[in-house]
Amino acid sequence: MKFSSKMERCGLSPMRKFQGASEQAISAGKKIYHLNIGQPDIHTPEAYREALRSFSQPVLSYAPSNGLPVMLEAVQGYYRKLGVELDRQDILITTGGSEALAMVLNTILDDGDEIIVPEPFYPNYATFVNLTGARIHPLTTCPEEDYFFAARTRVEECINEHTRAMLITNPGNPTGTILDREQLKLMLDIAKEHELFIIVDEVYREFVYNGEPLLSALQFPGYEENLIIIDSVSKRFSACGARIGMLISKNHALMQHALKWCQARLSAATVDQLASAALYTVEDSYFEAVRQEYKRRRDSLLRKLREIPGVVAAEPRGAFYLMAALPVDDADKFQTWLLSDFDDHGETLMFACGEPFYATPGKGRNEVRMAYVLNSADLERAMEILAIAIDKYNHRAQGDK
Which residue in 44, 102, 127, 256 has the fewest CB atoms around it within 10 Å? Predict the structure, then answer.
């Protein structure tokens, strides 16, 4: 039987690749500290559950393909607080930010096209791009430079006759990098000057830790034909399971094409839209408390991680991930060993292996992404386990020679 060559170009998600091995480790009695998936343990606001409890429609019907009016209004109100006015036609409600991204990539890319993405990047970007028949043109960054990429010469060196778009995450997953106003405007300027789309994934917008203002690319006028925003309730409100996201753009032709996808998949879930709309009523104090909690976690993780000899890690300024180079030969082999052959007092850990976060062959082999979505005490214990594991793994490897 023949399979799609586009699908065969795709790999398994590094965040979920070891699910089977982790289940076996748990069955063997091990406790695992999960740093592999960005699943917050912060409680979802009560407004979500209250909306679920109040649902009383006698028939659970389809929502409109573009989104329920109450959800569209909630999104409009949120952006209005940022000084951005959106019409309903500027918003499409999607099944998570992932569907929004898949939708827009299939709207703008063809076989043989290229899209510029700073690496390391969220690995599912590669899956969605591959399925369009296009390819990622990586803009390589490194921890020694805090994963900086917003320099005109570095970006324009990646542009060629096949380039159709750029895709950036701000704040960044997996690096925690943040673009300031000047850097973000530069990226928008480059897109406009070269007649490219620029997709800005802003699902981590609230998670900034050094006093930076909340920033959206939509706050910059004059880029309406180029700019596309990916947003979601998943991280902002700790509501990953709701699977409600949004595609936002003032490019009316693009949105009309994307609406074809929305209509083909009928609608995003009705009840989850109703409950997600209620999330937008929470007070700003909720976000401030969550920011402070993640900042404490970031600081705990980074402090303990930097105590381990040979580890290289930059301080993330936003989101809730950290990318680190470990003193091991291969993070994938190391993770396999952590689950199958190692424990410290019955405990081990999981991370996301770094190689799939890169498009450049061979890069990221000894790197990992860690999500600081556990409490500080658990993060510190996980780093203690990591230090012990690295030492044992390397001694074992030396003994095998």
Answer: 256
pTM given for the model: 0.95
Per the structure block, which two tokens stand in for 241? 């399971």
pLDDT digits (tens, 9 = 90+) for 236-293: 999 999 999 999 999 999 999 999 999 999 999 999 999 999 999 999 999 999 999 9
Contact 107, 261 (CB under 8 A): yes
Q: Would 5-43+285-400 and 46-279 be classified into the same CATH topology? A: no
Cα separations in angstroms, 354 against 119, 162, 301, 357, 361: 11, 27, 18, 5, 12
Query: What is the C-alpha to C-alpha distance for residues 301 and 6, in angstroms, rounded to an integer?
Result: 38
Q: What is the pLDDT of residues 140-155, one digit of tens each?
A: 999 889 899 999 999 9
The Cα–Cα gap between 339 and 224 comes to 48
Length of the chain: 401
What would the mean pLDDT of 160-168 be, rounded to a whole number?
98
Sort 183 into a burial class: Cβ within 10 Å, 0-12 / 13-18 / 19+.
middle
With DSSP H G I counted as helix, E B as strand and the rest as coil, what are the percentages for the chain, rounded to 5? 40, 15, 40
For residue 185, pLDDT beyond 60 = yes
| Type of residue at 268 | A
Q: What is the rounded distance in angstroms from the CA atom of residue 4 to the CA atom of residue 131? A: 9
Domain ranges of the chain: 5-43+285-400, 46-279
What CATH homologous superfamily does 5-43+285-400 map to? Aspartate Aminotransferase, domain 1 (3.90.1150.10)
Give the percent of the chain with pLDDT over 90: 92
Digit-coded pLDDT (tens) for 20-77: 889 999 999 999 999 999 988 999 999 999 999 999 999 999 999 999 999 999 999 9
**Average pLDDT, stretch 159-180?**
97
Calculate ∠ Cα 351-352-357, nearest 5°.
155
User: DSSP string of 61-100?
Assistant: PPPPTT--HHHHHHHHHHHHHTT----GGGEEEESHHHHH
List of residues 6+ apart from 332 with CB closer than 8 A? 353, 355, 365
State yes or no: pLDDT of 401 exceeds 70: no
Neighbours of 309 (CB within 10 A): 9
Average predicted confidence (pLDDT) for the chain = 95
- Give the CATH fold of the 46-279 domain: Aspartate Aminotransferase; domain 2 (3.40.640)
Q: Quote the CA–CA distance of 93 and 129 in Å, as a whole number.
A: 21
